[in-house]
Structures are given as C-alpha cells and as structure tokens.
Amino acid sequence: MKIIVDSGSTKATWWLAAASDSAIRITTEGINPVRDDEARIRHNIVAASQGMPQQALTDTTAIHFYGAGCIAPYSDIVAQVLREVFGTQAAITVDSDLLGAARALCGHQSGIACILGTGANSCLYDGERIVANTPALGWILGDEGSGAVLGRTLVADVLKGQLPKPLCEAFLQRFELTAAKVIDAVYRQPIPNRFLASLVPFLAEYRSEPAIHALLTHSFSSFFRRNVAAYNQRELSVGFVGGIAHQFEDELRQVAEAEGYKIGLILRDPIEAMAQFHVA
Fold first, then answer.
1. Among candidates 221, 244, 223, which has minimal Cα distance to 148?
2. Rounded distance between C-alpha atoms, residue 222 and residue 229, angstroms
3. pLDDT tens for residues 60-75?
C-alpha cells in the first residue's frame, strides 16, 4: 500500500493505492511548510489520516509527498509529522510539487514541466530529476500567469480604471469590494494570494471581452518569456498542471504557439499520473 500526495498552497490531494488496484482519494487543506507552522501541518496530515481506513496506518509501505514549499530545510518538518502519524515502517520521501508535476507530465521522458495554479513554477526535467529551475519568487516578485497574479492584475486594473467602465462596475458589484477592502485583504489579512486567486472566476466569465483576453494573454506571455525561455529548449514539449492552466487552456495554447512552443499535457489534477509513476 502506497500513499501519494499532491499538495498545493490551497489544497492537498491524498491518493491511497492498494495492491488490488483500488484507490482512495482524500482532499484536505494545502500544506506549505514555508508558510505553515507545525501545528497547522499536523492538523492537515491528521485530517487526511482520519479519512483513511485503519489499514492505511499499519500497512503503508511508502509515502511520496509532493508539496509547495517542500524544499530543504522546510521539508523536514513535513517528513517528521508524516512519520509520527503513519508510523516508522513506511519509507517517506518529501519533494517539491514541481518534481511531482514533472513526473506526472513527463514520466521518464525529458520535458519542461510547469505549474499554473494559485502560484506558478517551471522546470527543465531530464526524465529522472529537475536539472534547471527558474525561481518562481512568489506572487509579489514573480509567479507570472498564476491565479494570484491574475487576480492582482485584475483588481489593480479595476481600481485604477484601466479596464472599460462596464467591466469595472460588474467586478465591484459582484465581489462587493472597495479599495479599502482590497487593501485590507492584501496587506493585513493572512494568505492574500488565496484572496487574489479567488477573483479569477471573473476573468473566466468575461474572457471573451477584448480587455480581459489581453490581460490573460499578456500574463501568460510573461510566464513563457520570464520563466520557460531561460531553458532554451524549444524542441521540448511544455506541459502544465493546475487549475489556471486547465481553465484557460485555449488562451495558454494560443500564447504558446505565438511564443514558439509546443504544448504537451495539460492536467488540472496530476495526482493519478503521479500515482501511476510510483505504482506502475
């Protein structure tokens, strides 16, 4: 019995694979050890374990955890809590969500693997490991094309009157936001990137509007130019995981073609492909 975990900043998906080819899927809040303290990490891991059969706590032979922020030394606390909750008999590995995305998208083949969800990231993958990574830098300094940056651009354009007036009015009416409320949510409340990403459904609803289409394509172009171009590997396919990539697949493919890249897989949820990598 193996447990494979795909954890983003917003949610974590736990996949329990048994020898009988049956699988149990559980969803919890996301775990990010750069952001979360030990108590929060423990709460979410315990919540996942409570949704599993008792057999999972005794018969699990391996846990493969892929998560946002799971880089040394932050990944150590995730491994520690997993071992405390699931026992010492399981072999536990904790790696970045980017490596998990690469294994889901490329398997044992070379390629460029990208994440476009609440956050964004990319890497050059040689079929076994990540060999190059343009720093994502988070939603303040980077994360081009992510839900957080799309939401940040949208709300700033609305408040500064950079979008057509009917769109600005529709946005403010829908979310009942004022400049003061936005400032509070971004600068004073916890997890502002999640607040910003929550505004993205407006972009999906009005994606046919020229101004919104331009906002989307500009952000995705920035992702390719500031992240993917650094690998200088245009012969390789570029794959994506994440809700933003899936929701705006048409715009993403349009931009990729314009920038001279070929798109591989686009997966909203990579967990099953991750499981196949480890269970096959």
1. 244
2. 10
3. 889 999 998 898 899 9
